[in-house]
Specification:
single chain; about 180 residues; seven-stranded antiparallel β-sheet; mainly beta
Length: about 180
């Protein structure tokens, strides 16, 4: 028997994407970072992300047109709450989390070195959706730990140990345990 779910709780029934950290640069060059779970691949060269209109991440992307998507593994679980906190724009979440940055090749915002994968992106367009804007970024360049790649060049989520947010906004995550294949 199935239980009826309130309309306001239905989006909690589709929890499918790993948590990502987006890094941007504020107007003074400080690295800001935010954790996100509402995004999708739109094409092989575009990724769309729901970003709050009042967030530092959104303001920095609109100002610079650049951002990096960083995919953390389970080893960074304790850092994620820092990326979800409301620090002032003058503070770096990356620094507060004691993580290190690495230079990007195509854009100014840095990569987070400890993350399993990183994707350099350039803002292309956006669509308003309530409190958020659905920001679309063009993929410029990507990196992945060699040990986390599968045979066809995709991220192996089991080897990478990526985290899936299952109780947002609470810091409760799930890890995949195995792959299953249909006929």
């Amino acid at each position: 028997m199935k239980a009826e779910v309130a309309k306001t709780k239905c989006t909690g029934l589709v929890v499918t994407r790993p948590v990502i950290i987006i890094t941007t640069l504020n107007e003074n060059g400080v690295v800001n970072g935010g954790a996100f779970g509402a995004y999708t691949n739109l094409s092989p060269s575009e990724i769309g992300i729901a970003i709050g209109k009042e967030s530092h991440t959104y303001k920095n992307i609109k100002r610079t047109g650049e951002f990096v998507i960083n995919v953390p593994g389970a080893d960074l679980v304790d850092s994620l709450s820092i990326f979800g906190s409301n620090l002032p724009s003058s503070a770096s979440e990356v620094e507060k989390a004691s993580l290190t940055t690495d230079l990007a090749k195509e854009i100014s915002p840095p990569l987070i070195k400890e993350c399993k994968a990183n994707i350099e992106c350039r803002y292309t367009k956006e669509f308003p959706i309530g409190y958020h804007n659905f920001v679309v970024g063009e993929v410029l360049l990507g990196y992945c730990e060699k040990s986390c790649l599968d045979e066809d060049g995709r991220l192996n989520v089991l080897k990478a140990g990526v985290l899936h947010g299952v109780k947002y906004p609470l810091p409760i995550y799930a890890l995949f345990g195995k792959y299953v294949e249909g006929k």
